[in-house]
Structures are given as C-alpha cells and as structure tokens.
C-alpha cells in the first residue's frame, strides 16, 4: 500500500478513486497524566515520552486508514492529511486523525 500526502504519485497513474478513508486514534486522560507526571524527561523543551505516544497514535491512525483503503480494494491512499485535536472535558484527550483518498494506481 502506497501512502502519500501528495495528490498524485509520480510514476503511477490513478486508475480509479474508491473514496475518502479515515483513521483515528485517541489518547486518553491517563496517558496525559502519566506523561505530565513524568515531565522530568524533558530535555531542551521536548518530552521524549510525549513524542513517543504521539508517534504511536499517528501510527495507529495511519494503520486504520490503510485497513479501510484495503477494504475498498485500493492499493494506495493519496492526499493524506494528519490532524491533531484536543478533545474531552478540560482537554483531557488528544485525537490524531488521518484522512485521504483511497485509489487504485497502476
């Protein structure tokens, strides 16, 4: 499966559009509490633990997006957009969503 943020793929022709696909991952309040409790791992203004959890959420969202594209018979997703939102009561959760267009390329 080819995943791309671009609207087309160099060297490939889009043969068929299968539709918009979305993948989401939500980090709950416990993750944030644990991360901020361990704030001591911040070096140079960056938190390794926080970055690791965000990378994990991004990976989950992209895997879900890929799975939905596969279910539609696609072999690529173009125009992928990643969004990060704070949701829930008092911003206690973080959502990572990935969306794009499932296509068949040749």
What's the short story on this structure?
This protein is an alpha+beta fold.
Description:
The protein is of the alpha+beta class. Helices cover 31% and strands 42% of the residues. It has 2 helices and 6 strands, in the order E-E-H-E-E-H-E-E. It has helices spanning 29-37, 48-71; strands at residues 2-3, 14-27, 42-43, 46-47, 76-87, 93-105. Strands 1-5-6-2 form a 4-stranded mixed β-sheet. Strand 5 and strand 6 form a beta hairpin. The mean pLDDT is 86.
Can you lay out the helices and strands and say which pair or pack?
Layout: E1 2-3, E2 14-27, H1 29-37, E3 42-43, E4 46-47, H2 48-71, E5 76-87, E6 93-105
Parallel strand pairs: 1-5
Antiparallel strand pairs: 2-6, 3-4, 5-6
Q: Main beta sheet, described?
A: 4 strands, mixed
Number of beta-strand segments: 6
Mean residue pLDDT: 86
Task: Please give the alpha-carbon distance between the first and last residues.
Answer: 12 Å
Strand content: 35-45%
The arrangement of helices and strands along the chain is EEHEEHEE
Structural class: alpha+beta
- Tell me roughly what share of residues is in helical segments: 25-40%
Number of continuous helical runs:
2
User: What is the global morphology?
Assistant: elongated
Poorly predicted parts: none
What gyration radius follows from the Cα positions, in whole Å?
Answer: 17 Å
